[in-house]
Write a structure and sequence with these properties.
Protein name: DUF1090 domain-containing protein
Strand content: under 5%
Distance between the termini: 35 Å
Largest sheet: none
Oligomer: single chain
Pfam families: DUF1090 (PF06476)
Number of domains: 2
Order of helices and strands: HHHHH
Organism: Corticimicrobacter populi
Helix content: over 70%
Keywords: Coiled coil, Signal
Radius of gyration: 22 Å
Structural class: mainly alpha
Number of helices: 5
InterPro entries: DUF1090 (IPR009468)
Length: 133
């Protein structure tokens, strides 16, 4: 390899490392997808493996920590809206005396609240990773 080509290669490699270091939450997400790819490969699930490989390529090309955090925040907002709707339905069914519906909605509400808690934990975790130098 000529000296210029070596310099160019090293420069590109360093730039790629800097770009990845600038988005540690994306790096973490990519590592999770890589683990899923390995699992799909071990289980012979070629269709899932190909889908995950496309997702990983998209993640590497387009992911930013700010974008990940924004997406999680949007999911949290959607989850809160779902919870509010369920709470309204629950109040309505209680007023109607529909105990069968009340129990079903209470179970669903519990699941939705648990998912909200998971999303909030993920948001905190990603914010902590993204804030590290």
């Amino acid at each position: 390899m000529s000296g210029t080509r070596v310099f160019l290669f090293v420069g590109l490699a360093m730039a790629a490392g800097i770009a990845q270091a600038a988005n540690p939450a994306c790096d973490m997400k990519a590592a999770e997808v890589e683990a899923q790819i390995a699992h799909a490969r071990q289980n012979g699930n070629e269709h899932r493996q190909r889908g995950l490989e496309r997702a990983l390529a998209n993640l590497r090309a387009n992911c930013t920590d700010a974008g990940l955090i924004r997406d999680i925040q949007e999911d949290i907002d959607d989850q809160r809206e779902d919870i509010l709707e369920l709470e309204e339905d629950l109040a309505e069914k209680r007023a109607e005396g529909r105990q069968d519906k009340v129990r079903r909605i209470e179970r669903k509400l519990e699941e939705e609240r648990a998912e909200l808690s998971d999303l909030e934990g993920e948001l905190q975790y990603l914010q902590g990773i993204a804030a590290k130098p």
